């Protein structure tokens, strides 16, 4: 593809690295430790309401919680947080460093009308409340069946018992702090850092003594087992309250996310089993390709070259017979070039994102950082798409469709993403979900597309067309050769479906973990495992495509171009089908509303298309290199 391709790739990677500075990375400026003196305020922010049953996130203040109108305005959040419906809204929780509180009353709310209906429905839909302080998420600590620690992000809004709905209106906060070492002779006050934020939710039907409409004390305190729960019903008066305790922790600030991110032993065993399974698939395919390259191809080279010396072509069969047609331009060469270029773009942003994530730059501590980085990388890597598409088209056909290829690279896949995203955004607006992107954020995305991505595609295409097209090792005949029927009359489309199984099998277990993270609104953090699986996936796609391309050419079928792309790309179909199966096997599937199904299906369709393009690019690139090498190694008159 030319040495200039590496210069374009290097340029795009430099742009990506520069662009990543816009997102605060882990342990970089922007996420600095904060030292709190005793009595200093720990501001608690509300992020959103999430549910494993309903994919619609909602605003914290969409329910009747305590909070003035001034506090209902969100602090500034980054692009990634905005896209996932996360906000940073101040709350009425008044936490002070190392100042314990016991049964502190906040406010009372009388339930009725629409707020009552919304609260009841969201408790039945298993919604949780996401809060954080000092960038540490609020978690409910529990244990797995094996006894290891497990954390649930956010606390459950309430629970249902015997068809009655109850609200968790009392929170027992536990703030884990790491005290700074005292320096003898120093006049600076003692400080501490927040290294954990845990909660134990309770449902308490408070009996409160009031004076001048202000709470004096609750007769239900201190909170203990057997307290009367707070039932959600029309006309019920709900008092919100909380306790605060502080506990010293040996965990340093730099490693405070480690307890939340460390996978439990059961997950690690499953992950390693998945890695071994994928590795065995890779070894099998490597052995198969090695057999083809070292035995079959070498035997073919020797036989073809001997026949050339003996001037006897009667017994020549196999892939050498199609040397005059193997580089004939495929049908829809422009479309193939567009898909190839977009796949190259997705491949490289995946590589760069995984590398950044493995080194901790996209840690969950940087809220929304991963999605912000993906969008930024995709926009800045548009040069790769234009360049790769232009280079392939100029080599394969070089006709009059250059502008079409360039425009397709700029608008085809980004256009699909925008149409699906805009349609789902309208649905979120209709349901008044916090996941609906505001107008100005939507405008920002359009500016990034038309103002940055499109010009970079044009720049890449210009550089690609400016380069001299590389020459093929053999000439193409003017009259196309007749293609024999496929073996056993099996259509080529059947082989494509079979070929996609192995790449899908490589990523299957990791896909399950990713879908669990998406559906249950949990944090995905196992990027080291994901990088290993990705490397095995690349190897598998390349080898699968080479094997099927060789078998196709051996049957004297020279129409390998689309076959090489679709062989590995067909795994995207299995990804989408499995995502639908995963949805239908979720507990309470019949109770999931249509909006959640549409949102999940829409985004999984985009993910599957991106997976199809990326794996198709890998397979095509490997087959293209393979075909050039084998036909450059034989002598042809």
Structure description:
- This protein has 16 helices and 16 strands.
- The chain is of the alpha+beta class and 637 residues long.
- The strands form 5 sheets. The protein has a 5-stranded mixed β-sheet, with no helix packed on it.
- A hairpin with a 5-residue loop joins strand 7 and strand 8.
- Helix 9 packs antiparallel against helix 10, helix 11 runs parallel beside helix 14 (561-569) and helix 13 packs antiparallel against helix 14 (561-569).
- The protein is elongated and about 105 Å long.
- It starts with a helix and ends in a 5-residue tail after the last helix.
List the topology elements:
Blueprint: H1 4-19, E1 36-37, E2 41-50, H2 79-83, E3 89-96, E4 101-110, H3 113-124, E5 128-133, E6 136-137, E7 139-143, E8 149-153, E9 155-156, E10 158-161, E11 164-167, E12 170-179, E13 191-202, E14 208-211, E15 214-218, E16 237-248, H4 258-261, H5 265-310, H6 333-358, H7 369-380, H8 382-396, H9 402-430, H10 439-466, H11 492-499, H12 501-519, H13 527-554, H14 561-569, H15 571-584, H16 594-632
Parallel strand pairs: 12-16
Antiparallel strand pairs: 1-13, 2-3, 2-5, 4-16, 5-6, 5-9, 7-8, 10-11, 12-13, 14-15
Helix pairs in contact: 1-7, 1-8, 5-12, 5-13, 6-7, 6-8, 6-9, 6-13, 6-16, 8-9, 8-10, 9-10, 9-16, 11-14, 12-13, 12-15, 13-14, 13-16, 14-16, 15-16
């Amino acid at each position: 593809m030319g040495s200039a391709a590496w210069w374009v790739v290097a340029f795009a990677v430099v742009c990506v690295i520069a662009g990543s500075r816009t997102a605060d990375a882990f342990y970089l400026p922007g996420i600095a430790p904060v030292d709190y003196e005793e009595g200093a305020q720990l501001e608690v922010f509300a992020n959103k309401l999430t549910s494993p049953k309903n994919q619609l996130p909602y605003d914290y203040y969409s329910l009747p919680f305590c909070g003035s109108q001034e506090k209902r305005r969100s602090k500034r959040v980054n692009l990634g947080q905005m896209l996932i419906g996360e906000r940073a809204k101040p709350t009425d929780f008044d936490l002070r460093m190392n100042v314990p509180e016991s049964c502190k009353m906040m406010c009372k709310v009388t339930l009725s009308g629409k707020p009552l209906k919304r609260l009841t429905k969201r408790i039945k839909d298993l919604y949780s409340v996401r809060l954080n302080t000092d960038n540490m998420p609020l978690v409910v600590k529990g244990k797995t069946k094996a006894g290891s620690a497990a954390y649930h992000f956010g606390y459950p809004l309430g629970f249902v018992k015997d068809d009655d709905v109850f609200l968790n209106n009392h929170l027992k906060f536990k703030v884990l702090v790491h005290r700074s070492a005292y320096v003898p002779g120093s006049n600076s006050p003692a400080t501490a850092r927040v290294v954990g934020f845990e909660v134990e939710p309770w449902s308490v039907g408070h009996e409160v003594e009031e004076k001048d409409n202000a709470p004096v004390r609750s007769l239900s305190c201190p909170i203990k087992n057997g307290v009367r729960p707070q039932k959600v019903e029309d006309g019920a008066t709900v008092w919100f309250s909380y306790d605060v305790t502080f506990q010293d922790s040996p965990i340093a600030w730099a490693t405070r996310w480690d307890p939340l991110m460390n996978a439990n032993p059961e997950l690690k065993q499953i992950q390693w089993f998945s890695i071994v399974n994928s590795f065995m698939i890779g070894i099998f395919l490597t052995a198969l390709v090695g057999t083809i390259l070292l035995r079959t191809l070498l035997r073919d080279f020797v036989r073809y070259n001997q026949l050339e010396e003996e001037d006897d072509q009667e017994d020549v069969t196999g892939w050498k017979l199609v040397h005059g047609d193997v580089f004939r331009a495929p049908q829809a060469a422009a479309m193939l070039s567009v898909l190839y270029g977009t796949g190259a773009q997705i491949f490289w942003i995946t590589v760069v994102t995984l590398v950044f994530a493995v080194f901790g730059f996209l840690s969950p501590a940087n809220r929304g950082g991963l999605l912000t980085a993906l969008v930024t990388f995709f926009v800045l890597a548009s040069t790769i798409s234009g360049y790769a598409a232009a280079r392939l088209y100029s080599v394969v056909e070089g006709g009059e469709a250059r502008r079409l290829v360039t425009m397709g690279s700029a608008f085809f896949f980004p256009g699909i993403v925008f149409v699906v995203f805009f349609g789902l955004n309208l649905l979120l607006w209709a349901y008044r979900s916090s996941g609906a992107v505001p107008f100005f954020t939507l405008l920002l995305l359009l500016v990034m597309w038309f103002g940055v991505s499109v010009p970079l595609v044009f720049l890449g295409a210009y550089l690609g067309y400016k380069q001299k097209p590389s020459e093929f090792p053999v000439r193409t005949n003017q009259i196309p050769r007749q293609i024999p029927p496929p073996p056993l009359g099996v259509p080529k489309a059947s082989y494509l479906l079979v070929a996609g199984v192995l790449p899908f099998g490589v990523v299957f277990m990791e896909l399950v973990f990713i879908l669990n993270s998406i559906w249950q609104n949990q944090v995905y953090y196992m990027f080291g495992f994901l990088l290993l699986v990705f490397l095995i996936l690349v190897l598998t796609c390349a080898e699968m495509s080479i094997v099927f391309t060789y078998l196709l050419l051996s049957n004297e079928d020279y129409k390998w171009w689309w076959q090489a792309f679709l062989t590995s790309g067909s795994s995207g179909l299995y990804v989408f089908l499995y995502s639908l199966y995963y949805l239908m096997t979720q507990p309470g599937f019949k109770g999931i509303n249509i909006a959640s199904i549409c949102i999940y299906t829409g985004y999984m369709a985009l993910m599957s298309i991106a997976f199809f393009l990326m794996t198709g690019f890998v397979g095509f690139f490997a087959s293209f290199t393979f075909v050039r090498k084998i036909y450059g190694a034989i002598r042809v008159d």
